[in-house]
Amino acid sequence: MRSVPRRILIVRPSAFGDVCRTVPLLWSLRKSFPKAVIDWVVEDRWSPAISDHPAIDGVVKFPKREFKACWRNPRIAWRTLQWFLRLSRGRYDLVIDAQGLARSGLMSWMTRSKVRVGDRAGREFSWLAANHRVTLPQGLHVVDGMLRLVSEVGVVAIADMRLVAPSVSVEWWREESTRRGINGPFAVLATTNGWKGKRWIDARWGDLMRSVAPDLVRNGIQDVIWIGAGGEEGQVADAVAGASTIEELRFHNLVGLTTVGATMAVIQNASLLIGLDSAPTHLAVGLGVPFVALYGATRPTTDGPYQGQAWCIHGGHGEDLARHDHRDPAMGRKLMERISVDDVASLVRKRLSGGRSRE
Fold first, then answer.
1. Triad 178, 179, 183: Cα angle to 5°
2. Which is higher by pLDDT, 359 or 2?
3. What backbone phi and psi angles, to 5 degrees, belong to 8?
4. pLDDT tens, 311-353?
5. Domains assigned to the chain
6. What was the pLDDT predicted at 356?
7. Nearest CA-CA partner of 58 in 75, 84, 38
């Protein structure tokens, strides 16, 4: 860039896991432009993931779920138009479209920024909104791809994944853990997923807990917490019931009971997370918590936890996977079924023996 930007906008509205993986972009921009105002367009429900981050100045909340009705509701259509028009009043000098979809491209274009950076191969014609288009090599991890976007405009790329849980949520967990009698190390199970093709076989979670219970106890872990979003309670019902007979461990079912910030606070204090291809795994990376993750129809090398592929079990290994094969429930289930209880238990034991999530 010919001049130092005074106001910068990151456009990455969703999803939760992708927001977590975009934080290195924020750190990189802050390091290169310490005096700039840096804002971030993020879907309103995911905003707590970055609201307390020390490198950010402002969060521009995008009410995606509300605006979906703009085509049939004139009042919502008017609010949607007004929201997009306000972007042009931000007077941004530099805008990074880190999402590469039609809506993020429109957001970038509406800012009227002199420098709008985007992926030359952005989907849904989002590249048309960028006036500085970057060609990204095939096979890059999504984090490296986003860092390449800013490095092309003179920013020193920093692969810093650190996240910060909201202070109010940290205080909530301090009180909640005391109320539940959790006063030592604990593990977190993130076994739910909105995509059926990313879920493991329900009955295997209980079998896994029986297998690793002695190893957890030897490491001082007696409490295990199930987490998940509202509406996902049914996904864990059988697994929770099956695991409840394990006498060595105490289980706490928080599925549907935690906010985004509270989920971050729980994971931040955990000693181990076992999860799927979902946001909690990326939260574990950003919060420095050891994890083991189960992947099926998604490639950990490009879409998995950043620099944490060694701690992923990949049921789709050896398959020629497309980027969104997980959207096919049959394909996803077939590949997730390949992951055995012994496979996961072995990696959990290895994880418990040492090593951190940034290895």
1. 30
2. 2
3. -125, 140
4. 999 999 888 888 778 889 999 999 999 999 999 999 999 999 9
5. 7-151 (3.40.50.2000), 167-352 (3.40.50.2000)
6. 46
7. 38
Check whether the bond before 15 is cis (ω within 30° of 0): yes
CA distance 174 to 190: 20
At 242-282, the pLDDT tens digits run 898 999 999 999 999 999 999 999 999 999 999 999 999 99
| Per-residue pLDDT, 357 | 41
Structure tokens at 219: 């490491």
Is residue 49 within 8 Å of residue 19, measured between CB atoms? yes
What letter represents residue 183's amino acid? Answer: N
3-state secondary structure the chain: CCCCCCEEEEECCCCHHHHHHCHHHHHHHHHHCCCCEEEEEEEHHHHHHCCCCCCCCEEEEECHHHHHHHHCCHHHHHHHHHHHHHHHHHCCCEEEECCCCHHHHHHHHHCCCCEEEEECCCHHHHHHHCCEEECCCCCCCHHHHHHHHHHCCCCCCCCCCCCCCCHHHHHHHHHHHHHCCCCCCEEEEECCCCCHHHCCCHHHHHHHHHHHHHHHHHCCCCEEEECCCCCCHHHHHHHHHHHCCCCCCEEEECCCCCCHHHHHHHHHCCCEEEEECCHHHHHHHHCCCCEEEEECCCCHHHHCCCCCHHHEEECCCCCCCCCCHHHCHHHHHHHHHCCCHHHHHHHHHHHHCCCCCCC
Angle subtended at Cα 70 by Cα 113 and Cα 103, rounded to the nearest 5 degrees: 35
